[in-house]
Amino acid sequence: MTRHAITATALANCLGTDNKAVFDNAFAGHEAFVPGSTYCELPFPTSLGIMPATKAEPGLVPTRIATVASASIRQLVPGVRAAIERWGADRIAYVFASSTGGLDNSERALTPFPEDPKLPYQYANHWIDASSIAIARYLGVTGIRMALSTACSSSFKALASAIRLIDQGLADAAVVGSADTLCRTTIFGFHSLGLLAPTPTRPFSRERCGITLGEGSAYALVERDAKQSALAWILGMGAASDAHHHTSPHPDGIGPIRCMRQALEQAAIGPDRIDYVSAHGTATPANDSVEAAAVRRMFERRVPITATKSLTGHTLGSAGLTALILAIESLKRQQITPSLRASPLDESLDVTVVGEARKARIEHVLVNAFGFGGSNASVVVAS
Amino acid sequence: MIRFSVLDVSFFSTHYASAADLLAGNEREPTQPAYALLVGRARRFTSLLTQLHIEVCGALAPEGKEDQLAVFATSHGEIQTAEAMIKGIRQRTVSGARFALSVHNTASGLHSVATGNHAPTTTVTGKNAVAAGWLEAALTALANERTVLLSIADEPVPDLFQADAAKFGVAAAFLLGPRNAGGRAAELAIAPGADADIEPAPVLARAIDSWTGTSHDAIDLGPIQPGKRLSLRFAERS
Prior knowledge:
A: alpha/beta, Peroxisomal Thiolase, Chain A, domain 1, 16 strands, 31% helix, 21% strand, B: alpha+beta, 8 strands
């Protein structure tokens, strides 16, 4: 794989509805989670990452996921316009990823709780790609359009597909987008699996007890080449399947090790060149334990680790791209995002967790995104 | 033009015994897939969609099972599981097992576990899942110069969702390879056309029928970008 430029990014989540707010709050270690009862009445305690209020862009379907995506896409317009100048609108693909798509809209419209307002319903809004046509039109891109959904690795799979379109000559650039909203199904579902934290999530802590769910969108513009305007470069990507269990990680970390190794091989750099790892870091006992062991085995040193889900919550399909964009900002600031609430650290994991934002010389970051189905993906990004 | 090979195919429908029967409208008694690749606990709670994918994937004999690249495609995803979860929300509860199997990549995950396959898989979805699935699989085969298992399936959408969709389950799997890898030479072409969506079942049946027969007519796979459609054509048998 040749390297690919990231020329524009956009984030929106519980830390804010634009990059500046998200970045400033992330590097400041801002606590943004709220009680789960803020979202809906719940028979168990949990925290959630709820995005501040914002409006959907005109022309988009009136759903929460379109609103969450809107906060990102409006930030992307200048970058996409410049890319259209460079390549032409029909050479820019739109590749979208989500885990839940319009599920929130369907459950609220079809089986409303007593406190819910009456919502209009269209099945078309349930689809993962319900907003894709409208968003591509809004951005003015008319290239190949596709959507992917592989649970919490979705946005990295979309990035891989976009890069494949570029490498195979079917596009010169691609808008890679992802969005996921909170919905009752995921809150109750993760709780039933015993994976939902009652208190704000604590990746790699001895007292970790699971996931804090969040909503958000993450978008990146990836281009074949753009030396003048590159924010960062994708040097390598890796992907692998655990082939072990649908929801539990392989105890030997086979999938994570394979995909991290493949990403480093594609990047043509050794593990010693990675300045920190942005972990998947869901804070479930098993996930963090397996990921920590895989990182130890891969790096053979205590490479610094951070877990951005402690800041944003677990944004499901958007999680990988969210962490990647925060890593790109860390390359710019030469500062690692903090991993909140890691103390007291689980010493048995034998990893160095970045508990507070800290200055560092950063040239290469490895970002992980793992998901149900044993779906693992890693990306190496560089300045 | 994207040129590649299709080495093998398989087809299953709950209501049609073969692709030819589907095209001819010859229905059979509704039949469930055997999905024999899944055994024991792995069979529990699986949806018809997952069973369909597993059925057609199991009917092929992918080379190198432990390292078989795979692309799964589904327009609606685990829509019957979604219905069960949405109904469960009324009682403010969701089954953990059901929730775990609700993600679009459930079938690809269970298939990788069943076959011990550590290679990456992905799941393409959305309104143009058939076209995008073919494109993703062909590009993956060419980029890696290896075979890629492409499985496309959908289960009926429950009435709750008020969808205009097929009332039967259908699945087709194709083993793609790079150019000159054997089987039948194939090509994907992108050409101007209207943005109208396709009906996936007959399109999948036509692809199967074309591969197994002698046809080399172009098969319209549907929109792939605004104002452009993707088509599949098999070369004449040599």
